[in-house]
Every structure is written in C-alpha cells, then in structure tokens.
Write a structure and sequence with these properties.
13 helices; disordered C terminus; elongated; 459 residues; 4-stranded antiparallel beta sheet; alpha+beta; Adenine-n6-DNA-methyltransferase TaqI, Chain A, domain 2; 3 domains
C-alpha cells in the first residue's frame, strides 16, 4: 500500500486532474425563462436559460454563499459567478465519482475568509487526491450508487417522521379541546357535572356560537361551554420602551421581555435585555407576574403563547404581546395550551386577516373563544396531553438519533470508497500511475495546441 492506499493507487492534487473554471454572471432579468438549460448557483439549480456555458456533463461547486456545496448536471448548463465548475474529464474520468469525492471533502471547511464566506481556487488545487485505477473508479461508483440509493430511501422515510409527529400533536390538541380526549373519563366520572359558574354563563347569553358553528370538531360535551377570553381573565397590553431610552445587555434585575424572546411557548433567557432603574420607573405599571399567560400579537411570531415563569416575576412586557391575568375558572396551562392549539390558531389567523396591519388588537384578543370544561376535567386533559406529548418527544429523540446515524453513514461509506476499502482491487487493472501519465500528457498536449494558436494569432 502507498501512503495507506491500495497498490496501484497514486497521490496527486486536484490541480493535476481538473480545471476549476469560474462561473459566469447571469442576472435574473437576463435569463430566458422559456429556455431548457438549467442555471446553477452555489446551492443548486436556480432557474433556466436558452444557452449554456459548459460543454456537457458538469460538476458545480459553491464558491460563495453555500460554500463547498457540490452538484452534478448530466447536461450542459450555466453555472453563475458564485460557483466554480468542471466540465472536462480527461481520459474518461467518471464525473459522478468525482462529484461524490468532492462532496466527501466538505470544501466549505476549507474557507479562509470569515467576513465574506468563500473558498479560494488555490486552496482547492492544493488538496491531495488519492487517484484509483480507472476501472476501480467505475467499480466503486457502481457500489456507491447501490449503497447511497439505500441510504437515500432511508432518509426519505425518516423525513416523514417530523411531519407525522406534527400531525399527531395537532390531533392530540384537537381531541383535547373538543372533549374527545377525555370522553372515557367523563363516562367514569358522571358526578363531574358542569361548574356552577359555567352553568351561569351557559344560561346568561355569554355562550358564543357565531364563530364556531362551522367546526365539526368543536361539538362540545354538555358539561362544557364556549366563552370569550375576557370571561375568564383580564387582558392587558405590554408597554413600549420610552422614546430615546435604550435597553442594556447587563443584568440590572429589571428584564424586558421582547417578542423575539417569546418562541415556542417559552421565554428565551439568552435573548433577554434589561431596563435601567430610571427607565423602568416610567413603565413600572406594565409588569407581569409569574403564572400570567402571554400572547404575542404583532409580527411574524403572532399567536405564540405561554406562561411567565417564576424567575421573571416583575419583568416588563413588550408592547407586541399581551398578558392574560387574574384568571377565574380556567387553569393557566389549559389556557396557554388552547391558545397554541390548531383550533385557536385558526381563529387567530382569521381575526388577524380581518384586522388592519396584521395586528391582533387587544379588543380582538378579549373576544377570542375558549372551549371550557369543568376545572377538574381541565387538569385531566392537561395530564393526558403531557403524557402523549412526552411519547411524541421520545419518538422525536429517536428519530434525531437515527437521522444523525444515517448522515454519518453516508460520510463513512464515502470515506471507505476513497480509501480503497469499498470494493476489492483487481491486479489486472491498469495502475493509476499510467492513468496519471495519460492525463498529464493530455494536458501538456492541450497547452501546446493553445500555445501554437496564440503564436498563429499574434503573427
């Protein structure tokens, strides 16, 4: 073996094998969208045009942006100026083999500049390359196609799991807030009659129906009642930092919770900023208590809901969120979970669509509906939702572990392939040293032709 590689292999550099050509700029407005030639950027195909830059089969390598990303086009194409490309494969070097080899290098890790992500052609050219005999390259490629095809099937199956888990969680919440999730519990607990307060609401005109009649999944049990958020708690808005005042990163003990800190039902502590005592004194009335339910009401994160944790008691809340406090007859976890459920999110989307500037106004939040069961059943619902979500979380953890293993498997297969460990060697193969000489002679001959042409033109 030579340098750890099988007999008959050679060590060379990419510069000795290929020319990494620069892609050519082609702005969107100059492309012919009726063309059939694919236009490639560093992250893959980005459009079409009516003419090509390359000669035929092409390897495209991300030079800027998605640095080191590798794509293979079986046809002529137009790589733009954020890429390098290879469209000449001397003495029949298999393009698909070398595309996979370049992927295995993870060229993005070779980048030198941190200001503008990119990779130098000289850095690529200097990389040592194990050159296998041409016949072995073809055998390796045949094996890789088979193995990586199996990995691809596995990845596609795994990719369905997050979608299924999302649907599962949504169906759990839909069942929870329609009463289906606890139907068996009610049969075993007939004594759990409607709360007196709910009964009063049910017969006082507070019950709403105009916004929920079209929802079959919300055919509520007889012991439940539809109410408005304003019926179960007080809705209060947050407060903007006074004009000219600035938040600070230093922990002053006076946290200010911005909408960007409220994600996925949690408060992101790492994104918190703080008020100075002087500024806080001007908005001290707009604080939250531990256990208050919050709901974002402006921007991309509109409709995110959760509970203020104990350690943020007394924090100030952004004007882009509201708190729902002084709750009566409803568990705060039940309310927060309902606000995040697909059913309530649908109400919120429809409310926002009917509002100006995409804002969920305070008055509209007060009028959002909530399906309310007796308090004891709320606790049962929460327990069951938690148990089912814990199950989903366990499946998700196993999925992530499996996904990581499959991703590592691809790299492991490629590493074995390009070390000469994937297929057996054949002593009858023409050695890579002969292949390398052919490539070198071809390049020198090509340079000679170019040189002669240059002389001819100059004379």
């Amino acid at each position: 073996m030579k340098d750890g590689f099988p007999k008959g292999w050679e060590i060379t550099t990419l510069n000795e094998l290929f020319e990494f050509k620069y892609g050519k700029g082609l702005p969107q407005e100059k492309r012919n969208i009726k063309g059939s030639v694919k236009v490639y950027g560093s992250n893959g195909a980005v459009g079409v045009h009516d003419s090509a830059v390359t000669k035929g089969t092409t390897i495209i390598i991300g030079r800027k942006g998605s640095v080191g990303e590798v794509h293979l086009s079986r046809e002529k194409c137009w790589p733009i100026d954020t890429t390098y490309f290879i469209d000449e494969f001397p003495v029949g070097l298999p393009a698909n083999y070398w595309a996979l080899y370049l992927k295995s290098l993870r060229l993005g890790q070779q980048e030198k500049s941190s200001a503008i992500p990119g990779i130098s052609r000289d850095d690529i050219y200097a990389i040592d390359v194990p050159l296998a005999p041409l016949a072995e390259q073809r055998r390796i490629m045949a094996k890789l196609e088979k193995l990586l095809g199996q990995v691809d099937v596995c990845q596609k199956r795994l990719a369905k799991i997050p979608i299924l888990l999302k649907r599962f969680r949504q169906s759990v919440l839909a069942a929870a807030y329609s009463g289906r999730l606890t139907a068996d519990w009610r049969n075993k607990n007939p004594s759990s009659e409607i709360d007196k307060k709910l009964w009063k609401y049910k017969h006082s005109g507070h019950v709403i129906s105009d916004t929920i009649d079209s929802y079959d999944e919300f055919d509520l049990p007889s012991t439940w009642v539809w109410l408005r958020i304003n019926d179960v708690g007080e809705v209060k808005g947050g407060k903007r930092v006074p004009k000219g005042a600035k938040l600070v990163k230093e922990n002053t003990g006076l946290p200010y919770i911005k909408a960007g800190c409220l994600k996925g039902g949690s408060v992101l502590r790492e994104k918190l900023e703080y008020l100075t005592p002087e500024v806080q004194s001007k908005i001290k009335r707009y604080i939250v208590k531990a256990g208050d339910v919050y709901l974002t009401n402006v921007g991309a994160c509109i409709g995110d809901a959760g509970i203020i944790p104990n350690d943020l008691e007394g924090a100030n809340l952004t004007e882009n969120a509201v708190k729902i406090c002084d709750l009566s007859g409803v568990d705060n976890q039940y309310l927060a979970s309902w606000l995040q459920s697909p059913g309530c999110q649908d109400f919120i989307r429809r409310t926002v669509l009917s509002a100006a500037q995409g804002k969920l106004a305070l008055g509209r939040i007060k009028m959002l509906p909530i399906p309310l069961p007796p308090f004891i059943e709320q606790k049962e619902i929460l327990q069951r939702v938690v148990e089912l979500f814990v199950l989903a979380d366990k499946i998700e953890a196993r999925y992530k572990k499996a996904q990581s293993q499959v991703d590592k498997l691809t790299q492991s297969i490629l590493a074995k392939a390009f070390r000469g460990e994937l297929v057996p060697q054949d002593p009858n193969d023409e050695p890579a040293s002969v292949l390398f000489k052919k490539i070198k002679n071809l390049k020198e001959k090509s340079k000679g032709i170019i040189s002669k042409e240059s002389v001819s033109v100059s004379t």
